[in-house]
Every structure is written in C-alpha cells, then in structure tokens.
Amino acid sequence: METGTYTVVKGDCLYKIAGMKNIYGNSRLWPAIWDANKSGVVSAPPRVAKTIPNPNLIYPGQVLKIPTLTDAQKNDAMSRTNSYKTKRKMKTKTVDSGDMKKKMKRNNFI
User: Fold this and answer.
1) Is residue 53 part of a domain?
2) Is the overall model pTM greater than 0.90, yes or no?
3) Model confidence over 56-78: pLDDT tens digits?
4) Domain CATH for 27
5) Tens-place pLDDT, residues 95-104
6) Which residue, 27, 47, 54, 105, is the most exposed by fewest CB within 10 angstroms?
7) Inter-residue contact 39 to 49 (CB < 8 Å)
C-alpha cells in the first residue's frame, strides 16, 4: 500500500484532513488515516504523542501517514464512520416543586 504524508497544523482534525481535496476529498474516510497512524506516526516534535490511540487527539507538528485506498478500503472506512456516529441524549434534571417554591420565596419571587 502506497502512502503519502501530511503535517498536522493547529485546528486540524482527522475528519478535516480526510476531506481535503489533495487527500481523499471525503471527510468520512477519516478512519483510514486513524488506522494507519494508531501504532505510530511518521514523526512528531519533542513531547508530542508518537501514536494516535484516540482519533480526537492529534497535535500540530505530527506527520501522519496518508494511505492510498482501494475501493474496498474506502467502503470499509465509510461503514466504520457510520458506526462511530452516536446520538447524544439531553440530560434533564427533575425539580421538586417544594424545592422550587423555597428558592422562589428566598429570591423574593413569591
């Protein structure tokens, strides 16, 4: 498998890098970049991680491997992207009406 490289700059994320026209032109192929760099990046500045165990943690100066993908690998990366999507649940806090009345009274609303 042929690979290119990309040097991370401030504000980059794997999603953004994969979407660049000179990389893949498709942001949803970011898992391929992550897989290629999990065990080690090409190079990194001193005191910067040499591996990427968490795809949300990449740092400026890291030089990432950018693999050339076959159609099968693209399909695999796309299906993996879909599996990473999660739905966020809103946390709601229930309020006891007695407590609310006390707070309102204390704040001179009643």
Assistant:
1) yes
2) no
3) 999 999 999 999 998 998 998 88
4) 3.10.350.10
5) 556 676 776 6
6) 47
7) no
